[in-house]
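SEVERITY: medium
COMPONENT: batch folding queue
REPORTER: lab tech (J.R.)

DESCRIPTION
The queue accepted two submissions in a row. Attaching both inputs and their returned C-alpha cells so the on-call engineer can compare them side by side.

ATTACHMENT 1
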Amino acid sequence: MIFLYFLMFAVAVGFLIKSSDWFIMASEKIGASWGVSPFVIGLTIVAFGTSLPELATAIFAMIEGEPGIVLGNVIGSNITNIFLVLGLLAVVAKSINLDFDLFKNDIPALVISALLFWLMLSDGDIDHFEAVFLLLALGVFIFSSLSGTEDEDIVKVKTGFKTYLIFIVSGALVYFSAKYTIDSIVLIAESINIGTDIIALSLVALGTSLPEVSVSILAAKRGHAGIAVGNVIGSNIFNTYIVIGVAAFFGPLEMTDMLTNFSLPMMLAATFILAVSSLSKSISRWEGFLYLLLYIFFLYRLFI
C-alpha cells in the first residue's frame, strides 16, 4: 500500500510541475497578445511560475488543515534550490560567474526576504498583518527590479482559442494535481509514522525544485549559468513572499519543532553561505561540492 502512496505522490507532483509549465507558457502568450513587454512578463509571470507548484500545494495544505506542509515546503524548497540546484550547477559548470547586477540587487533582496521570514516566525506564527507585509515587500522587490530598465518596443503577437484553452485546462490540472499531492503526503506520513512537515521538507521540496534543477543544468551546458542563479534567487524570494503571504490568509501557519530547531536555521545558513560565496563574484566547483554535502547533511538530519 505504501508503494501506491508514493506512486500517487510521484504522479501528482509530475502533473503539478508539467501543468504549471503549460499554465505559465499560456500566460506568457496571452500577456504578449495584450501588449505586455517581454521584460515585465519575465519578471512577473515567469518568476511567479517558478513558485506556482509551491503556491498551489500551500493553498491546498491550508484547506486540508496541514499548515506544517506549507512552511516545510517553502523552507525545504529554498534550501534545496541553494544547496542542491546551485551545487549541481557549480559542479557541472565548474564555476559560476555572477554578474554585478545580480550581486548588487538580487542577493541582498534574497537575504532581506530570509531575515523577514525568520523574524516573522520568531513568535511561532504568521498573522494576517505580516502576510500583507510580505506581499507588499514582493511589490517593492518587483518595482525596484523594474525601475531603471530601458523601455522596450512592445510588439503584440496574435494568439488563438487554443492558447486560452490550454490556460484553462492547465489551471484545472494544477488544481487537481495539487490536491492529490497533499492527499498523498498525508497518507505517506500516516503510513510511515513521521510528520507531514518532514515529507514537505524533503520529498515535496525536491519535487517542486526539479524544474530549477533541469533549467540550471541546461543553462550551464549552454554557458549561461548566471541566468540559472538568477532564476534560483528569484524563486526563493517569490517562495517566501507570495507563497507564505497568500497561504497565511487561509489560516495560522504554526511552526513545528523540526522547523524551529533545525530547518529554518538551515535555510538562513544556506542564504548567508550563498551571500558569502557571491562576494568573490563566482561560485567555484569545490563550493558546489560543499553545497551538495550540506544538502546530504540536511536530508540526513531530517530522517535520523
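ATTACHMENT 2
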Amino acid sequence: MNQSQIQVPTLTKVNKYILIIMGVLFLLSNVLKASVGVGLVGHLGLSPMMFFSGHIYEIVTYPLIANGIFDILFNGLLLWFIGSELENQWGVKRYISFLLTSTIGSGLIYLLFSSLFLSGNGLFSYPLYGMHGAGAALCLAYAILNPHRIFTFMLIFPMKAKYFCMIMIGMLLFNGFFTPAKVLAWGHLGAMAFGYGWMFVISSDTWKKRLSKQSFTKKKPRSKAKLKIVKNDDDHDDDEKPPKYWQ
C-alpha cells in the first residue's frame, strides 16, 4: 500500500451528526426563504452587530449554517476525508475539543477585525457562516500529522499536504492584506492559529505529565469484601480445632 496517498476513511460519528445538522438547517433555511423571504443565515450566522447586541450563541452556531449547496459539498468532503481520519486518531472528545477551539477562535478573530475595520460600515452586520474556518484548521492539523500525504490542488495538481497547506496560508494572507475579503481571510487564519495552539498544548510535555499524573493518582475502588476469623472460646489448643466460622 502506498502510504503517501490519502485514504478514504469511514464517515465517523461526530462528522455524521455535523453533516446531518448542516443538511437539515440548509433545507430549513431555503424553505423559509422561499416561503417568508427570510433564511437562517442572518439568525445563526456570526454577525458582529448581532453578537455585540447579546446574540452570543452565534459564535457556535455559525459553522452549522450554509448558504449554498457547494458549501455543503465542499465542507462535507473535508469532514469526511480529513475530519474522520482525525477523529479516528484523536478520539471523539479531543476531536470535538479541536473543532470547538478552532471554531470559536475563528469567530473571535472575525469579531476583532470586524470591529477594527468595519465598525460604522454596513458590512459590520454581515454574518460569517459555514465550516470554512474549521475546514482550514482541519487541513493544517492533517498536514502537520501527515505532511507527505498527497492532496490534489484545485482538483488538478497533486502535491504533498504540507505544500498544500503552505499555499492555502499564503492565499489567505494575500486576501487578508490586499482584498476586500480581508476580514473573512483573517477569520480563517484565526481558526488555523487556534487549531495549531490546541495541538501544541495537547502535545506538550507539561500536558502529557499532567494527564499521566492524573491517571496514576486515580484512586482505586476499595473492595467491600471483608474476611475475619472468629476463634472458639474453648480452652483447647488452637492447632487442634479450626476456627468456628468465617465471616
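NOTES FROM REPORTER
Residues 243-247 have pLDDT under 50 and may be disordered.
No errors were logged for either attachment.
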